[in-house]
Amino acid sequence: MAREFQFYIVPTPIGNIQDITLRAVEILKEVDLIACEDTRVTQKLLNHYQIQTKCVSYHKYNEKERVDFFIKELNNGKKIALVSDAGTPMICDPGSVLLEELLKHGISVSSLPGACAVTTFLSQVPRDNEKFAFIGFIPRTETQIKDIIKKYSNINMVFYDSPERILKTLKVIKDIRPNVRVALGRELSKLFEEIVVDEIDNVIEHFKDGIKGEIVCMVYEESESRELDLEYKISDLKKLGFKDKEIASILSCLYKLNKNQVYKKSISTEK
Length: 271
Description:
Elements: E1 7-9, H1 22-30, E2 33-36, H2 39-48, E3 54-57, H3 63-75, E4 80-82, H4 96-104, E5 109-111, H5 117-122, E6 132-137, H6 142-151, E7 156-161, H7 166-176, E8 181-186, E9 194-199, H8 200-206, E10 215-219, H9 225-239, H10 244-255, H11 259-268
Parallel strand pairs: 1-4, 1-5, 2-3, 2-4, 6-7
Antiparallel strand pairs: 7-10, 8-9, 8-10
Helix pairs in contact: 3-4, 6-7, 10-11
């Protein structure tokens, strides 16, 4: 006998309204409530597929206060589905607080496979290996962006950004890594879908007149990433007050590096 679930995490289309599974439509019809970020956005999807299930708003501003309501409904035998405005819930969307409570109360949860901007994007982007770091929405301040670019220089780094900020973000990245290769995708699965893979200068030039649509971007790993990663680690330890000799001992022990080489590098590296 198939297991009976009470709570479902259901992906919705990221652009093209037809990108939803038959099972997802079936679940959304069968549950008693649908928890969604914006009821107006979700209602358009429900109307398209003639789904009459009641929607309840659930977003980062009312996340905690909704938890008790959902737990009560589930304990009364109701079934609930969680959706986001677009894509797979829990990927840069609210839900963590609720899931934590569901686990505490022993409520069964099932997550359906489906649309996600990150995987849709990466399936169209050439890479030398499968490793990548997804950081969600990139920070807004220049200092934070630079810190993240340094920190993840040794791995392909994927992030979301808004069309209003992405050119500024790319220019900050260029300051740190002037010759880096980037991949930028916009309007994924929609009519004007576009993915550009090139050196950062060329990507900035390509979109110099502006850009529209939701953005997914990947900064390729640095070919000399080991050296940059070492500089970042040294700088980080210096900010914590460690001396050059202490840094050499710590990093050589943790990463099996030559202690003398680390020491020389530490002397020449600023905080």
